[in-house]
Amino acid sequence: MKIKVLIIDDSALIRSILSEIIREESDMEVVGVAPDPLVARELIKQCNPDVLTLDVEMPKMDGLDFLEKLMRLRPMPVIMVSSLTERGSEITMRALELGAVDFVTKPKLSIQSGMHEYAHVITDKIRAASKAKIRARTNPTSSAGSHSPSVLPSVRNPLVSSEKLIIVGASTGGTEAIKNFLSQMPSDCPGILITQHMPEGFTKSFAKRLDGLCKISVSEAVGGERILPGHAYIAPGHSHLLLARSGANYVTEINDGPPVNRHRPSVDVLFKSAAKYAGKNAVGVILTGMGKDGAEGMLEMKNSGAYNFAQDEASCVVFGMPREAIAVGAVNEVAPLNDLPHKVLHYLDQHGSRALRV
């Protein structure tokens, strides 16, 4: 069975480009195109698509308004097509909160050489979206932080905050999973490094949004900053994030090397640096996402003495990355998303007294 895709965009050119990309794939087909959400409503009834691509900003009905109604009345996988602007990134972050599975940026029409890679990106995201678990949003108009889990108590062992690190990787569905994870972290938790597959221009908005929702400080990593307790550092969309050392301190490092597993930033790159420089001081966490990025690096972390957690299948939007890490033997514990922060901090509290200085 082919993946049935409905394209919703007010630009005839974008509709044409997306249609051409999708029709080149043997496992997917375009079942309809719509210039606005009003036309799309009828096409959804007629065509019963598996995945929608939805423009963020459109006439007649805003993309967010349409998404909100859709996720309440007929939940289905949606990929947002976003302009690479500050407003576009803010709207996209809100769309992910409302239930969109993922997003792509609008293609740069002037760069034909980049269209091949763009086609790979969007078709991979469509495949991931077609497998995603979509849950109805009973109250999607509520404020972003109103249903966040409670912040956990402060860590009991002072060595935990000063000597341990939490290393997180995620992809499809990861923006909401990371928000859930970080919103439970107390202000004195160990420093956290995060790689989320996300294009350049969006990670700063993502970090800013999280910073306003969490007890801890959240920022886009710039490289060279000392990793402090109560702080989370997110890989910038244009570069790999690595853990490094400067004397006795852990610091961030930014690297614009080639993509790994077709990703930059790559989870494997971050995890492998944690294995090298943190060893037993690290706790690894792999969250929802498609593909295998992170599995090899997490195994290196485990072999270097780290203790690793994976999000369970039931709570994942896409179970690919956790499944791959589990399959290679890299994971010590598997748990639902809501339980992961407690389990991570409990483990650290129990083992902080044996922290290893490397």
Automatic annotation (TrEMBL):
Family recorded in the similarity comment: Belongs to the CheB family.
Residues at the active site: 171, 197, 293
Positions where 4-aspartylphosphate occurs in the chain: 55
Claim: Transport is one of the keywords in the record: no
Ranges of residues in domain Response regulatory: 4-121
EC number(s) per entry: 3.1.1.61, 3.5.1.44
Keyword Cytoplasm attached: yes
Gene: cheB1
InterPro entries tied to this protein: CheB-like, CheB_C, CheY-like_superfamily, Sig_transdc_resp-reg_Me-estase, Sig_transdc_resp-reg_receiver
Post-translational modifications reported in the UniProt record: Phosphorylated by CheA. Phosphorylation of the N-terminal regulatory domain activates the methylesterase activity.
Job of this protein: Involved in chemotaxis. Part of a chemotaxis signal transduction system that modulates chemotaxis in response to various stimuli. Catalyzes the demethylation of specific methylglutamate residues introduced into the chemoreceptors (methyl-accepting chemotaxis proteins or MCP) by CheR. Also mediates the irreversible deamidation of specific glutamine residues to glutamic acid.
HAMAP family recorded: CheB_chemtxs
Organism of origin: Undibacterium macrobrachii
Keyword terms: Chemotaxis, Cytoplasm, Hydrolase, Phosphoprotein
Pfam families to which the protein is assigned, alphabetical: CheB_methylest (PF01339), Response_reg (PF00072)
Domain text: Contains a C-terminal catalytic domain, and an N-terminal region which modulates catalytic activity.
Protein name in UniProt: Protein-glutamate methylesterase/protein-glutamine glutaminase
Domain CheB-type methylesterase: 159-351
